[in-house]
Structures are given as C-alpha cells and as structure tokens.
Amino acid sequence: MKWDKALEPASAGEVHPDDIPPSGWSRAREVAWHVPRLLSGLGPLGPRGPEDGPPVIVLPGFLAGDRTTMELRRALARGGWRAHPWDLGTNYGAKPDTLERLGGRIEEIYDGRPIVLLGWSLGGLFARELARSHPGRVRAVVTLGSPFSGDLKTNTNMCAMYEWVAGHDVNQPPFPRLADKPPVPTLALWSRRDGIVAPRAARGLAHEVDKAVEIDTHHMGFALWRPALSRIVAEIRAFLAQIEGGTRGTAALH
Questions:
Q1: Collapsing DSSP states into helix, strand and coil, what is residue 229?
Q2: pLDDT, position 5
Q3: How many helices (H) and strands (E) does the chain have?
Q4: Of 208, 231, 91, 63, residue with least CA distance to 149
Q5: Phi and psi dihedrals of 112, rounded to 5?
Q6: Cβ(109)–Cβ(84) under 8 Å?
Q7: What does the alpha-carbon distance between residue 229 and residue 215 come to, in Å, rounded to a whole number?
Q8: Has residue 202 got a pLDDT over 90?
Q9: First-to-last CA distance in the chain?
C-alpha cells in the first residue's frame, strides 16, 4: 500500500520555511476573511446528514464553536455522513474536563459503528488525544490545519493569545499531551497558505501521521470555503477506502 508520508525534519542548524509560523498580518487577514461569513452558521446546531450515515464528530478550533463549523458539517452531510457537533460551546482552550466531556459525546453517539473524529486547528489536537482513550470507538482521526507537530510555542502565531485566554502555558495543558501517533488511522490535511499555523506543524513528520495531504486554502477556509470543503470530504473518503480496503471503505460511506 502506498502512503503519502509526511516529510522528515530539516538538516541540523537549518530552518525550513515550512517551520516558520505565519506573520501577525496573516492572522489579521484570517479574522477579517472570517467575519463576513459568520451568517453561514445560522440554522439548527444538531446533527446533519442522513440518520444512517457513518458518524463523524466535528471539533472546532480555538475561539470557534459549532456555528463556525456549520458549513463543514453541511459539506459532510451532503457527502452522506451523519455529522455531529461537538456540543461544548466555544472552544476557549484545553480544560481539565475537555477530554472527559468529549468522551461522553462519543458514548452518546456510538451505535456500534466507530466514529471519525474531525478536528479543525486546536480541535485536531483534542481529537488526537481523545482517540488514545477510545481507540475501539474511533474509526480515524482527521486534522485540518492542526499544529500537532513541533513546538507549540513557535509553530503558530496564536501562542500568546491562547495562553491569555486559556489561562495556562501552551505546553502544559491540564491533561497529558503525547507527541506520537494515536493508535488509529490518522489523516492530516494542511495548507501552505495557512495564515495561522506553520505548514510542517500541520503536516507532521512521518512517525506522527499515516497520511498528509495539502489543501489549497487558508486557515479559516478549512471550515468555511466551499471548494476546500468539497476536497476535504473527498480526501476523507479516499483515505478510508485506502486503509479499509478498496470497495469496503468506499461502500461504508454510502
């Protein structure tokens, strides 16, 4: 089986451009791009898609919530998924009970079929940790522009804001954070145009992820830009078909 593996680190003493986080101006541009699209989050916040569709839980990024991921869940629903919100309000960072409450969501939704955890940005870090404690109930983890690789102090331009809002050092969350790959299939979707996260941080190294695919979008586009959303749904479908064996994986999406 052929995998699109992540790249290895740069040579000693060399700083690769993909390791450098975007500028503060890029962060401001991301926020400005997001504001006029807030109305896309209007509508019921419950599950989207056919009731018998394969289950997926969408975990929002930092300072985002279920309204922010509405377009993403709509795209999944159009693709035949039963897309569930995380139902924890706004994501203000890691809290002592975050993984426990997300574990409760898994138990609420689990119907005998393992669940895909789809995490955008910070939500992807939560998804990777959550999969460690529920491997039998998690089908795969998919991250969208999530800085799971490298030093969290330097791999995004949001560290200072995160620490101010969340109230803790970014490298000392109130639950253990492991750097190795979770015990489930993992797909990392990343962008070189990301205005928040350094590309390599979201792509990961070869031992941290099973497959990494570049999506041509910026950070907010992972949740809001329709061309990117269509590509995301297609890449998830292809990944599951690949890891689960041809027609078996494809059939599971219908």
A1: helix
A2: 45
A3: 9, 6
A4: 208
A5: 105, -20
A6: yes
A7: 10
A8: yes
A9: 24
